[in-house]
Design a protein that fits this description.
This protein is α+β, with helices and mostly antiparallel strands. It has helices spanning 5-17, 20-29, 36-43, 47-59, 79-105, and strands spanning 34-35, 63-68, 71-76. A 3-stranded antiparallel β-sheet has the order 1-3-2. It is globular and about 60 Å long.
């Protein structure tokens, strides 16, 4: 029997990504580190809302942060985070293409 702890940990990472804003944050950080202000402007949401999402993502190990002076900077904790999101997107695109093909057959 497999150790169920691994499934629990995997689910926590999935939860950390399971919100459209969080997926957008990952997409924005693919190119590199951004400050809190830059992220806030890029995703166009309130500071309090973004702060809560970022804290959760840092807590789950999806993002890393560093402080420089008064600014907080965020980056992906691993390139694997971006790869996982790209994989999910590829699955979605495949589903959409299948749906479109079915509609075309009608």
């Amino acid at each position: 029997m497999k150790d169920k702890t691994l499934y629990y940990l995997q689910a926590n990472i999935c939860k950390a990504l399971a919100h459209p804003l969080r997926m957008e944050v990952v997409d924005r950080l693919k190119e590199g580190e951004l400050s809190f202000g830059e992220l806030c402007e890029a995703v166009g949401c309130g500071k309090s809302n973004l702060s809560q999402h970022l804290a959760s993502m840092v807590d789950k190990g999806v993002l890393a942060q560093r402080k420089e002076g008064l600014n907080m900077y965020y980056r992906l904790s691993s390139d694997s985070v971006a790869a996982a999101c790209d994989t999910v997107r590829a699955v979605l695109v495949g589903q959409l293409e299948k749906g479109r093909a079915l509609l075309m057959e009608m």
